[in-house]
């Protein structure tokens, strides 16, 4: 959870950006960071998603696992990052519901083909449209 106004603003920026990733597409932590103007902070994007509240625990939260498509963000190699427990399996299952095929690498990693499912625009669609920042 954010502990400062600056951290809260960062989390909000990340969650809003991830909300723009289209259904059935994936992007990387680094690409979200780049779209936000912080190319050097892909791990911080990952941390925001790691601490995204569960909709089951916080159903009324503005940003939670039902309102932010966390499953659409993977690492720069197209691999679903291990996150302990059954997190990678949950992410694979959520992507499968969107029609995204997850394969296994020779090392057993869950991998998504960026050529088929990648989403890597030069800017966020909301910026391209000139949307006003909403509160």
Automatic annotation (TrEMBL):
The keyword DNA damage applies. GO terms for biological process: DNA repair. InterPro entries: ATL_DNA_repair, MethylDNA_cys_MeTrfase_DNA-bd, MethylDNA_cys_MeTrfase_DNAb, WH-like_DNA-bd_sf. Residues 11-100 form the Methylated-DNA-[protein]-cysteine S-methyltransferase DNA binding domain. It comes from the Eukaryota. The keyword DNA damage applies. Keywords: DNA damage. GO terms for molecular function: catalytic activity. It holds the Pfam family DNA_binding_1. PANTHER family: 6-O-METHYLGUANINE DNA METHYLTRANSFERASE, ALKYLTRANSFERASE-LIKE PROTEIN 1. This is DNA binding methylated-DNA--cysteine S-methyltransferase. It comes from Dissoconium aciculare CBS 342.82.
């Amino acid at each position: 959870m954010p502990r400062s106004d600056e951290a809260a603003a960062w989390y909000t920026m990340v969650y809003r950006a991830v909300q723009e990733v289209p259904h059935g597409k994936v992007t990387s932590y680094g690409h979200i960071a780049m779209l936000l103007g912080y190319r050097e902070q892909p791990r911080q994007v990952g941390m925001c998603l790691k601490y995204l509240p569960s909709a089951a625990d916080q159903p009324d939260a503005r940003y939670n696992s039902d309102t932010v498509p966390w499953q659409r963000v993977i690492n720069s190699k197209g691999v679903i990052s291990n996150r302990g427990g059954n997190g990678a399996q949950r992410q694979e299952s959520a992507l499968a519901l969107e029609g995204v095929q997850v394969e296994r690498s020779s090392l057993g990693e869950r991998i998504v083909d960026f050529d088929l499912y990648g989403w890597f625009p030069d800017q966020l669609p909301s910026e391209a449209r000139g949307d006003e920042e909403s509160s």
